[in-house]
Specification:
Length: about 210
C-alpha cells in the first residue's frame, strides 16, 4: 500500500447548486493558480489595502496562494527540503521545464527561503492527454509506466500540485521516488476537489490518500 499525507489550502467544489461566497472564492484561487479563465471577483485585504482579485490580475492571486503554501510548509518542516512538482501533461522528458506546477513550486520556494529547493524529479516519458479531459477510474498504476524519474533528490521531498482530485498522479510519483530510496514526506496542493459542500472551505485540510500498487 502506498500512502501519503496531503495538505490542501481550499476545497474546490465541482457540483452545481447554491454556492456560498467561500465556494466562489476557492474557485478564484484554484483557477488563478491553474491559469484558467474565470468570472467573478474577490475583494480581499492584502497588507493595508483592499485588492480586487479577478481574472485580470490572477497572477496576484497565484502569488498569494504560493505565499500561503510557503507559510504552511515552514510550519510543517524544520529541515531543508526539495519541492517536486507533479508534472503537467506537457511536462515530458526533453520538453520545456517551465511547466505550470514547476513555476508554482518556484514561487513557493521564493517565499519559503533558502532551505527550500525545487527539482523536476519526475516527468512524463511523452506528452499525455490532460487528465480532466479523460473519464473513468484513476489509479496510480495507470501513471507509473508513463513517468520517468529524471533526478534523484538528496533532501526530503515535498510533492507539489495545484489540485488533488483522486491523488493518483501524486501517489504514482511517491511510489517511483520511494522505490529509488527518496524520502517523500508529504504532498501539498492549493485545492482538493469535492463534490459536496464542506465546512472550512478556505482553511488548511489534512488528508491521507492511499492506493494498493501491484
Amino acid at each position: 500500500m502506498t500512502t501519503l499525507v496531503t495538505h490542501s489550502f481550499c476545497k474546490y467544489l465541482t457540483s452545481t447548486g447554491n454556492w456560498r461566497d467561500q465556494d466562489y472564492r476557492a474557485r478564484i484561487v484554484v483557477k488563478s493558480v491553474k491559469g484558467d479563465d474565470f468570472k467573478g471577483y474577490w475583494d480581499r485585504k492584502i497588507g493595508d489595502k483592499i485588492v480586487r482579485l479577478d481574472e485580470n490580475n490572477k497572477e496576484v492571486t497565484a502569488d498569494l496562494a504560493a505565499s500561503f503554501m510557503a507559510a504552511r510548509l515552514k510550519d510543517l518542516v524544520n529541515c531543508s527540503v526539495t519541492l517536486v512538482p507533479i508534472p503537467n501533461s506537457n511536462a515530458c522528458v526533453g520538453g520545456p521545464r517551465d511547466f505550470r506546477t514547476r513555476l508554482f513550486a518556484d514561487a513557493i520556494a521564493k517565499h519559503a527561503g533558502d532551505r527550500v529547493a525545487v527539482k523536476s524529479a519526475c516527468l512524463w516519458k511523452k506528452p499525455k492527454e490532460q487528465q480532466h479531459k479523460t473519464d473513468g477510474y484513476r489509479h496510480a498504476s495507470q501513471f507509473i509506466p508513463l513517468l520517468e524519474m529524471v533526478y534523484k533528490p538528496k533532501r526530503p521531498v515535498i510533492l507539489i500540485d495545484d489540485m488533488i482530485t483522486s491523488g493518483s498522479q501524486m501517489l504514482a510519483c511517491t511510489y517511483i521516488l520511494r522505490a529509488a530510496g527518496v524520502d517523500v514526506r508529504f504532498g501539498m496542493a492549493v485545492g482538493r476537489q469535492t463534490t459536496e459542500q464542506e465546512d472550512g472551505v478556505l482553511k488548511w485540510d489534512e488528508k491521507e490518500i492511499s492506493q494498493l500498487i501491484l
